[in-house]
Known about the structure:
four-stranded antiparallel β-sheet, elongated
Amino acid sequence: xxxxxxxxxxxxxxxxxxxxxxxxxxxxxxxxxxxxxxxxxxxxxxxxxxxxxxxxxxxxxxxxxxxxxxxxxxxxxxxxxxxxxxxxxxxxxxxxxxxxxxxxxxxxxxxxx
Length: 113
């Protein structure tokens, strides 16, 4: 089996997309993490250690996560629980997700890659 077959298996079997409306949560503190997230378009705010969105950003420091960034890569290697809240802001956001279980299943099929 070729490297190209492995990449195709990742794209077809482990990747998915998610559209998130403005001002909606992507994940919350304590939720089981099941995927690595790639921000394709839009921007999100991440609030570490917070379970509900603060009324204003000044109430709790946040980290902006913008297009062409990723989060939650640890889930590809270990069981992971979200450590904060990620939410969209005033505009919708497009995400690509790499499912952790499917990622690990593909790697088992190509141990030499």
